[in-house]
Design brief:
The protein is of the alpha/beta class and 300 residues long. It contains 13 helices and nine strands. Helix 5 packs across helix 11 (239-256). The mean pLDDT is 95.
Length: 300
C-alpha cells in the first residue's frame, strides 16, 4: 500500500504519476490524502486509478494525518510505503528495491536514497549527497554510540514501514510540527527493531531553500526537539552531526562552487539562530512563533 499526502503539487504531479505507473512492483492500493488542492491534483490522481481522500487544509498535520490514513486504509496490509508529492521515483524498480529491506525480519522501517533534482543549487545538492550516501546500511539501537542522533534518521519523503511494528509502538506521533518520521524511527529502535537505508531505491527530491526558509525550517526543528527532549537525551544532540555537515559542505563548495561559501556561512548562522529560537519557543508569543515558523498551520 502507498500513501501520498498532497497539496497543490503543481506541474510535476503528472511526472510523479507516470513514474508510479511504470513501477515493477505495484502497490495493492494507492491513497492520495489531498489537502484542498486547487490545481487539479485530485482529478489527475483519480484518472490514474488512485484513491483520493480529501481533508481540510487546516486539519493537516505531519503525524496525525499519516496515522489517520494508516488507521483508515491500511486494513491487513503488511507494509505501507510513504511518498511526498515532490519525490519523483527514479527507476521502475524503486519501490521494489525499497520494500526488499523487509526480507530481513528485524527491519521495521526502510527509507530510500534522495538524489538532487537537476535544478538543485550546490548547497541543496550537497545536503542530499551528505544525508543519502551511495551505500546501504542497517541501524540498531546499539549503533547510537557511534552515530548519535543520526541513528534514528529517516525521511517520509520515501519510506516504508512494517505495519505490525508501527502499531506495536503506537504509530505516528500526534500533532508534531515536523519530524514524525524520526520520532517513529527512534521508538522503533528502542523497541528492538532495525531501520534500513536502501541506497538502490532512489527518488529525485531536493529543496532550494532561501535563507529565510532555511531559518524557518531550523526554527521548527528546534521546536520539535524542545517538545520531545527525550530524542536528544537518549540519542544525543545534533551538535556533532552539525559540525560534520558544515565541514563536508565547506569542502564540497570549495570544489564545486567556491563563490557560494559566504552565503553558506550566513546560512549556517541563520540555521543556528533559528534552532536556538525554536528551542526557546515557549517563551515567545504564539503570533511570533507563527511568524518565525515554516509550518504556520501548526500554530493556528
Amino acid at each position: 500500500m502507498l500513501l501520498v499526502p498532497v497539496c497543490n503539487p503543481g506541474p510535476q504531479w503528472q511526472a510523479f504519476l507516470q513514474a508510479l505507473k511504470v513501477q515493477t512492483l505495484q502497490p495493492d492500493r494507492c491513497i492520495v490524502i489531498d489537502s484542498e488542492s486547487t490545481d487539479g491534483a485530485s482529478e489527475a490522481a483519480l484518472a490514474a486509478g488512485l484513491t483520493v481522500h480529501r481533508i481540510a487544509r487546516a486539519d493537516f498535520n505531519h503525524g496525525t494525518t499519516r496515522q489517520l490514513a494508516v488507521d483508515q486504509f491500511a486494513d491487513n496490509a503488511d507494509v505501507m510505503v510513504f511518498l511526498t508529492q515532490d519525490a519523483l521515483l527514479v527507476e521502475p524498480s524503486a519501490l521494489q528495491q525499497l520494500v526488499a529491506a523487509f526480507d530481513n525480519t528485524t527491519v521495521a522501517a526502510a527509507y530510500g536514497r534522495q538524489l538532487p533534482h537537476a535544478n538543485a543549487t550546490p548547497v541543496a545538492a550537497h545536503a542530499r549527497l551528505f544525508n543519502y550516501p551511495a551505500t546501504s546500511h542497517t541501524r540498531l539501537l546499539s549503533d547510537m554510540t557511534e552515530f548519535g542522533i543520526k541513528t534514528c534518521f529517516l525521511s517520509n519523503s520515501f519510506a516504508a514501514y512494517r505495519l505490525s511494528a508501527l502499531r506495536e509502538v503506537g504509530g505516528f506521533p500526534a500533532n508534531v510540527i515536523l519530524g514524525e518520521d524520526m520520532h517513529l524511527a527512534a521508538r522503533l529502535l528502542k523497541a528492538g527493531h532495525a531501520i534500513s537505508y536502501q541506497a538502490q531505491a532512489t527518488v529525485y527530491h531536493s529543496h532550494n531553500y532561501s535563507l529565510l526558509a532555511e531559518f524557518r525550517r531550523y526554527f521548527d526543528t528546534g521546536v520539535f526537539h524542545a517538545q520531545h527532549p527525550w530524542l536528544t537525551q537518549d540519542f544525543g544532540g545534533a551538535g556533532r552531526e552539525g559540525l560534520r555537515f558544515l565541514c563536508s559542505e565547506m569542502i564540497y563548495l570549495l570544489k564545486h562552487a567556491p563563490w557560494q561559501l559566504p552565503e553558506a556561512l550566513c546560512r549556517t548562522a541563520l540555521k543556528a539562530l533559528g534552532y536556538h529560537l525554536g528551542q526557546h519557543h515557549a517563551a515567545l508569543p504564539q503570533r511570533v512563533c507563527s511568524g518565525l515558523s515554516m509550518h504556520k498551520g501548526y500554530w493556528a
